[in-house]
User: What shape does this take?
Amino acid sequence: MATGLKSTPTQTLPPSRSATLSGGTNTPAHTCRLYRPERQAEAKSIAASPDHSVVARGIGSAYGDCALNRDGAVLDTTRLSRILSFNEDTGVLHAEAGLTSIDLIDLLLPRGWFLPVTPGTRRVTLGGMIANNVHGKNHHRDGSIANFIDDITLLIAADPDQPELVTCSRDNDAELFWATLGGLGLTGIIVSATIRLKPAPSAWCKVHRERAHNLEDALDRFDAGDDQHPYSVAWIDCLARGDRMGRAVLMRGDHAQPDDIQGPGKSRYVTPKRAQRVVPINAPGFALNPVTVGLFNKAYYSSAKDGISIEPYADFFYPLDCITHWSKLYGKRGFHQFQVAFPTATARQGLHETLNRITTSRQASFLAVLKRFGPADPSPLGFPIEGATLALDLPNLGAKTEALYADLNAITLEHDGRVYLGKDSLLDADTARKMYPRIDEFLRTKARVDPTNRFDSSLARRLDLRVRTNGADA
Assistant: This one.
């Protein structure tokens, strides 16, 4: 539990329960006090309680421990999910933070609007996207979600006895605005936000696929063709060796125009319902190994056909969402995701050394993604830097995986890169400070709005993203 929280008269709190929670990786798992408020006033009473610290949590898809709070409180925002206003002419949406991408897209895509930036799953809330300052397949052109957020209403605890709602924007407390974007929920509870949506001419995507023989070929193809498409991503074979290391399937996408949608039964804003598959139980530990993953990677690469296809938006943006509980493929111990970004000057060498270390480790990952990043934004904890990013899953093999992760971090630091805090579960505080030199700037803002660490998490304690007073935790 957080220490140093000043005692106040007992607050009237909504019902809660003890729950062992984990994120999308199934590891780590921490016991927390879980609240699920239905009104903003209830969220305020939870934040005002001196008995615990609190972190907000949405659907629970966040990787790592950023939405966990061991022995503290977790505030489930999914009932705080109202659309407060929407301008159908401009696409400007004001909504509560618990609104999910699933509901937003289902409601507004048929009206011609889509998320301006989306991660690789629809299982995410508006608040989660802001807290992690998410990026998507279009960062090289459009940047992170921050570029489309006009304002954020936040529950802060400058006076821990009387939490209050404040609204921040680029013009009104820009320091708090940018600290909250990518701030992992540590500046306060995101209550609502205003976001500018993107016009969508249809619910389909025009996808250009091409295979690359190795990492160098993939990066060359990115450089040559990315500027022609708003969305770009590549699947990478992390087990291929030698001159095939980093072989890839590149996928560039555009929103399909009405004239692109041809064929019987095709409708502009209606796509076929996807067959939903379920992984009912945790796979045995030996299921994902270099042999099985190698066979999958070989089959996927061989079956990919160069050319253009018209596909439902969900197939392009959210390929894994059609598999319920897909993380169970990694077994009961779960997995760690490693996502690294390298600046342009060092990206090729950094990616080459990273892939070489992964392939020699033979720690299987059938899901690895390579993308280009555009310029960074002013967020002090923002992850993207202009260059390239690689994301992959590492099955949790205990000490063996931790040793690999340490080696990958060393390569990252050597090439001026950084790992994504929103997906991390193994980084230490010293390494985080080397990767994120603006942490102290972030903590100065946190000290102003949360001097007693009322808003805290397992990640914050692991990475020491906490306010200190006279050299000690507040």
Remarks:
- The longest strand covers residues 204-212.
